Amino acid sequence: MPIERLQALDNVEKEIASCIQSAGQALTELSKDKASMKQVESHTSQFLKTLNHVEGELSKHINYLTQVSTGQPHEGSAYGSVKMYKTARHRLEHTRSRLQDLENLKNRALASTIRPGSAQNNP
């Protein structure tokens, strides 16, 4: 999915270059002493057509990025799952740490109540 999106953006970039080229050709034709209005209109029409297509494609990509950045579900995203996994993993590590702390406290408490010398004095 990401590769397809990058390829689509690469195509949009090529269309932008084509759009600029059409605009340049129209301006070049207009700068001539005897400009062919048919050529100017053809280049202008191509410019507008390409520009509208570029605008539509960029809008699609912007909408996709808006969905991704706001956390809304969309196809191909694992962000939510990865975030939940990392949070659960963090909680697990914290719980293990706290349990280890409690185990250490218990062992110290047991060690202080059962002293080696006190076990020998009690028959």
**Can you tell me the number of structural domains?**
2
Radius of gyration: 35 Å
Q: Give the CATH architecture of the largest domain.
A: Orthogonal Bundle
Q: pLDDT average, as an integer?
A: 85
Helix % is over 70%
Return the CATH topology of the largest domain.
Answer: Helix Hairpins
Number of helices: 4
What structural class should be given to the helix and strand makeup? Answer: mainly alpha
* Shape estimate: rod-shaped
Strand content: under 5%
The CATH C-level name of the largest domain is Mainly Alpha
Ends distance: 77 Å
Spans of at least 5 consecutive residues with low confidence: none
Number of strands: 0
The biggest beta sheet, please? none
Q: What order do the SSEs take from the amino end to the carboxyl end, as H and E? A: HHHH
Task: Walk me through the structure.
The chain is built from four helices and no strands. With about 120 residues, the chain is an all-alpha fold. It has two domains: about 1-70, Helix Hairpins (Orthogonal Bundle), CATH 1.10.287.3490; about 80-115. The relative contact order is 0.07. The mean pLDDT is about 85. Component of the Mediator complex. InterPro entries: Mediator_Med11. GO terms for molecular function: transcription coregulator activity.
